[in-house]
Amino acid sequence: xxxxxxxxxxxxxxxxxxxxxxxxxxxxxxxxxxxxxxxxxxxxxxxxxxxxxxxxxxxxxxxxxxxxxxxxxxxxxxxxxxxxxxxxxxxxxxxxxxxxxxxxxxxxxxxxxxxxxxxxxxxxxxxxxxxxxxxxxxxxxxxxxxxxxxxxxxxxxxxxxxxxxxxxxxxxxxxxxxxxxxxxxxxxxxxxxxxxxxxxxxxxxxxxxxxxxxxxxxxxxxxxxxxxxxxxxxxxxxxxxxxxxxxxxxxxxxxxxxxxxxxxxxxxxxxxxxxxxxxxxxxxxxxxxxxxxxxxxxxxxxxxxxxxxxxxxxxxxxxxxxxxxxxxxxxxxxxxxxxxxxxxxxxxxxxxxxxxxxxxxxxxxx
Length: 366
Ligand SMILES: Cc1ncc(COP(=O)(O)O)c(C=O)c1O
Hints:
The chain is of the alpha/beta class. It folds into two domains: 19-260, 3-Layer(aba) Sandwich (Aspartate Aminotransferase, domain 2), CATH 3.40.640; 263-361, Aspartate Aminotransferase, domain 1. It has 13 helices and 14 strands. It has a seven-stranded mixed beta sheet, sandwiched between helices. The protein has a three-stranded antiparallel beta sheet with strand order 11-14-13, with no helix packed on it. Strand 8, helix 7 (181-184) and strand 9 (188-192) form a beta-alpha-beta unit. The chain is globular and about 60 Å long. The two termini are 40 Å apart. Residues 12-13, 66-68, 71, 93, 140, 144, 169, 171-172, 192 line the site of pyridoxal-5'-phosphate.
């Protein structure tokens, strides 16, 4: 018997998906069968189209596992022992990349700013001027830790100026916001199945500049995390190198169709943006201050400060969950916060309903 949730996820992924996406997982598919391999090839081509890149110059590599697996595969395979990477951080996901660099044994430099601030162009320029060993730059686009939307144009401009390879972790933004990968000169963009394309968890993907990926042959220090090898195998005919998450892949293919039906990335962005603005506006009125200022806020997820010292998140969480919505704890160490994601199958009515529930919790009658 199938039991359905009686709540929706207001989290940064896995997120609330459509029943039709979930239904795709009721079929068992064979990994080497042409029907299945053609799903993989369709997904790879469609992702290039969404990224706005020339299909001759870029390619897509799908990678088993969660988003971090693909980030680690990129760090491990595209940065050789002769290279040095500048890692820009203002949140936990940037810091995770630093950890990966340490595990892999990469030459790296970290440039970090507080979680609610943008990295500064002049400071990064100084680092790049002074440290000519730097060959790669990596930055998270939407830092899901807080919801800050990092200035991708600024880092892309610097990367072009200093002729470095640019790696962008667009895990929680790709599909929900337009990112013109070739115009920005992004060499590797990473995202995963269970974010703004609204699939389910199980694999991640890398949109890679072909010329650069080809030059990575032999760099990898690990078999499973070899992005080049993964691409070579998959590019032949859509068969994955090791066992592929067949159910998840089929669900993702359906999610891509549904993104088109919604009107593509511009329509999805508009829905997320409206959800986010309404949420912030209404919660502000009942005492919830957002941690990130309006101009730096992404349309993906918002961090809210506790409204007062008596606020009990567990109690609040249970109250809201019993009424149909699951929230997310905060990820800051020095401030008491919680987060609300507004991506996935979440519409204006859900946000209004949620805000009514939160207003009731706060003792405000409309
Ligand atoms: C920006 C960003 N990078 C990396 C990750 C890590 O992805 P995963 O938890 O799927 O490994 C996340 C997860 O939410 C993320 O938001």
